[in-house]
Model the fold of this input.
Amino acid sequence: MQIRPSTALRNQYNEISQYCKTHDEPIYLTRNGEGDLVVMSIKAFEKRERMMKLQIRLLNNEIKRLSGEKTYTIEEVEDELNKMLGS
Done:
């Protein structure tokens, strides 16, 4: 985990940018000794967003399953796909 003072963003922008892109992890910035911001590459941010959306979908589906909503076995899904594909 990288922690740097907020002035580093201004004074070492290129180094911070390169680190985030190379290591695919965020840098935590502090202001007056307190946590202030997190800086990360767009690639890492988008990956994180996709993972969070997937987790939300999985959680919602698990809630539905636990509340009794109909589920399908692998065989049922396979049969249905074969029917759709004409196999």
User: Anything to note?
Assistant: The CA atoms of residues 63 and 69 lie 9 Å apart. The chain has a mean pLDDT of 95. The first strand starts at residue 2 and ends at 5.
